[in-house]
Structures are given as structure tokens and as C-alpha cells.
Amino acid sequence: MAESDVVVFGYVAHDAINEQHAQAAAFAAALSRLAKTEIAVCRTRSYAEVTKLMLRKDVDFAWLPPVPYIALSRRDAAEPLVSLVRDGHAEFYAVLLVRSDSNIKNPRDLLGKRAAWVDPHSASGYVLPRIGLSAVGIDPRTAFKEERFFGSHEAVVRAVVELRADFGATFGGLDAAGALVRGAWSASEAKGAITVLATFGAIPPDVIAARAELPTFVCESLTHALTHASQDAELKALMVKMFGADAELHRGTPDGYLEFCRATMRASEEGLLEGEEKK
Hints:
By secondary structure, the protein is of the alpha/beta class. The chain is built from eight helices and twelve strands. It starts with 6 loop residues before the first strand and ends in a 10-residue tail after the last helix.
């Protein structure tokens, strides 16, 4: 790869929203300026798709949740550049949501209900909730009347609010005191309509990772630019829009990835993560 080559940044956008694409393009342009490397963007519709493109070397670096990052790293196909820290916390949590007026009051009431998941590769929107439910004696392979993947955390929240699902799985964040205060429901009309039924975690943070064959000098340029992004007003504003409130990028990955990887592997071996819808 020559220094003049374009480096491709992959991101997941489940809906073809022009605003999202414009933000990603602006993020790439601002990062290009800091990294002194020309960056293009590649929109994908799923975590599986962006993972496949990295394996094919069509995407050079990408924003990845824990599960697809672990899948790539186990194949020695990706190296972490930075991890995301939101509101001072690297880790986040999986939560199960129900409508505030629901008669579901504890996890055992979920038997025979309709589940809304994000994506088979979503740590908070599928993987950890199923591991957590299994740990409290609820077999997610047989417990639910219906299971559907809605593609995004916001879509899961809408499905619960609109009674298209009885409960949904998404992410939750903590404030400085450790209280659960933030999630996909926080900045929407759904905030007063839903309540948190259960919390599972913690989950290691999302990462921006590069394909393993990307030259070291490119990785270092990107890592330097990303870790200094919070000092650049334009790039910081774009990061807040794309990654969440007060997101900072720290080099490498924190503790917690190894244990989460082990738990995911055990669950997969037990058949808890089959990734199939039930209608």
C-alpha cells in the first residue's frame, strides 16, 4: 500500500439516511486532516457485512461492537486502534426494556412473550441478554413466542413502545456515580413510555479496529488522530453525533475483552446464540 492510497472507513447504518452518510463523510474528512491520510467511507447495513468486507480487505478500518471485533481478532484479521469511552466509562451494559404499563414485572414473566433483538452480532442487543437470561434459569432457545431482529437499538425501542414486541434488548450507560441513566430511549419520546426490567453486564466498549495487514505507519497515523480527536472541535462534535455523548477514544482495548470472549464462546457452544428469528 502506497502512502497516496485511500484508506476506507466502514460503518454500519441500518437505514439509508442521508444525514447519517453526511456525518460519516464529514467525520472521514476531519479525520483525514488530522491523520494526513485520505479517507473514504463505506456504509454497510449490518455488523456481519462490515466484518465480511474487512476480511475481503475492502474496508481498512471500522467501528465495531465487541462481538464482530472478537470474531475478527480470533482470526488474526483485525487490530484495535482505539476504544470508545462514553461519559467517563469504557464499559456499558445490556438492558431489557418493557412498556411502563406492561404486566411484565420480572424476567420470569418473559416466558411466552415476543422478543425484540437488535442483531445477532449485537453484544447488548442480543448476546449478553441471552447469556444473562440463561444464567437466571430462562432458556432463550425455547422461552419466547416470537423473536425478531429490528436492526438498530432505536428500532427495538420503537417496537416495544408500539406494542410490536413485549420486550426488547438494548444498551445502557452509567453516569459518574454508577447509575444507569442513558440508552437508546433517552433522547426520544419513548423515554417516559418504557422502563428497565433487567440489567446485564458489563460489556467491553466498541472499538475502531484496522485490518491486520494495514501498514503500521497508517495505523499509527489513524490512532494518533483518533486519540487527539477530542481536542479538535469539529471532529469532537461529529464523534458526539456518531458515537454518543461525550465519547472519547483511548488507544487499544481495556480489560474485559478476554472474559467477554470466553463467555460468548461458551454461549455459542451451548446453542444460545443461534441468531434465528421465530415468528
